[in-house]
């Protein structure tokens, strides 16, 4: 059975065309859609979504070892909100918070360090733009 050159050319052009369509559909079009549909930056803070997390919540009570606290200021969709003022507080006077306030970065995060010369636990709370978050984190200092 002899195959005509026109038939071979037609089959090769169909295969090449399908390859081009696959490349466009899997690589080029998704990149274009992502660039056209990028969401606007988050601006409205959701107190229910925002978090106070202890990265390190146990430290020596020597004034040098520090607990690390991260506050994530998020919108209703869980996206970080940039440039929001966050203050960290504690009712217990035994702790030293550094810095006491800061601005969130592009991910909605600001970090603090907490130290103490005295043994005990302290409840750490975050205040975002003047409003206290509903939950905090406990840190512990031991000798």
Write up this protein.
- The strands form two sheets. Strands 2, 4, 6, 8, 9 and 10 form a six-stranded mixed β-sheet that branches.
- Strand 8 and strand 9 form a beta hairpin.
- The longest helix is centred in the first third of the chain and has 32 residues.
- This protein folds into two domains: 38 residues; 92 residues, Immunoglobulin-like (Sandwich), CATH 2.60.40.
- The chain is 22% helix and 37% strand.
- The chain has one helix and ten strands.
- The chain is α+β, with helices and mostly antiparallel strands.
Keyword list:
single chain, alpha+beta, Immunoglobulin-like, six-stranded mixed β-sheet, 10 strands
* Full CATH superfamily name of the largest domain: Immunoglobulins
What's the helix-strand series?
Answer: HEEEEEEEEEE
Number of helices: 1
The number of distinct β-strands equals 10
Helix content: 10-25%
Mean pLDDT: 89
The biggest beta sheet, please? 6 strands, mixed
Q: What structural category characterises the helix and strand content?
A: alpha+beta
C-alpha Rg (nearest Å): 27 Å
What is the secondary structure topology, with strand pairs?
Layout: H1 5-36, E1 51-56, E2 58-60, E3 67-72, E4 85-90, E5 95-98, E6 101-103, E7 109-116, E8 120-128, E9 131-132, E10 137-142
Parallel strand pairs: 2-10
Antiparallel strand pairs: 1-3, 3-7, 4-6, 4-8, 5-7, 8-9, 8-10
Concise structural overview:
Helix content is 22%, strand content 37%. It contains one helix and ten strands.
